[in-house]
Structures are given as structure tokens and as C-alpha cells.
Amino acid sequence: MTYYYEVFHRLLKLSRTLVSNFNKEIIVHNLHHSQWRIIRFLKEFGPSTLVDIADYLSVEKSSVTRTVDRLKKSKFIQAVPGKDKRERRIKLSDLGEEAYVLGYEIAVKFEDNAMNGISKEDLETTFQVLLKIMNNINNEPGGKK
């Protein structure tokens, strides 16, 4: 077993643990992590296409479509006219805006707890290392030298 394997194993395990525990917190508002990510994206970037969301979240468009359909049924989002008839744009509804506020409170507490006892310097180093790994995977500048 290589050291790299252990790093990636722990990253994947951390990701799954974060999502699972966050879901336990946010379910009280009838939301799941995947839905929260889209709500937060729409709050930060405004009305968007499904492709914009999928690209930003680095997920398949089909996954975004399924999650958006659930958000529509829950009345958290609504369709808005696009540049042409084929373009599917969405935005937060009033109920979605309320869900954002409630979800944001949970996210801040959750993130503060997760980062408890970690210095700003350690966080910055971790962020830079994760960014380099992502750039290496995507063959982007700032990756392999």
C-alpha cells in the first residue's frame, strides 16, 4: 500500500463522512446535501442553467437534472426564461430563499465544528495542497511542475 493510496482513501472517507453527517443536520428542513449545494449555488450566482450548475459542482448534468426536479416539486426553485427556448434556467423561489437561510445557519455551525482546533495556517496549507491535487488531476496550471 502506498502513502498516496492512504491520502486518497482518507479524502474519500472524509467526503462521505461530511455528506452523511451534514445530511443528518439538514434533513430537518427536508433537504439533502446535493439539494443544498444547488440552493447555495443559486443564491451565490443567481439564475443559472443546469449546465452551469453541473460544471461548477463537477457533477453530471443528469444528476443535477434529477436534483433540480426534486427541488421543483418541493417548490424551492422555479424556472425562468432563458436566452432561447432550449435553455433551461432556474432560480430560487421565495421558499428556496427561506431554505437557504435555514440551511446556511446549519452549514456555518457544521463547518465551524468541523474546523474546531485547526489553525488558519494549517487550513491555508491544506487548501493549497488540495488545490494542487485538483489541478494535477485536471492537468491545469498550478499542478505538476
- How many domains? The number is 2
| Share of helical residues | 55-70%
User: Would you identify the CATH H-level superfamily of the largest domain?
Assistant: Winged helix-like DNA-binding domain superfamily/Winged helix DNA-binding domain
**Measured on Cα atoms, how large is the radius of gyration?**
17 Å
Alpha-carbon distance between the two ends: 25 Å
Largest sheet strand order: 1-3-2
**Beta strand count:** 3
Question: Which runs of at least 5 residues are low in confidence (pLDDT < 50)?
Answer: none
Global mean pLDDT: 92
CATH class of the largest domain: Mainly Alpha
Main beta sheet: 3 strands, antiparallel
- Please identify, by name, the CATH architecture of the largest domain: Orthogonal Bundle
Q: Topology as H/E string?
A: HHEHHEEHH
> What general form does the structure show?
globular
- Strand percent estimate: 5-15%
The total of helices stands at 6
Instruction: Examine the coordinates and then state which fold CATH places here, giving the name of the CATH topology of the largest domain.
Output: Arc Repressor Mutant, subunit A
Derived structural class: mainly alpha
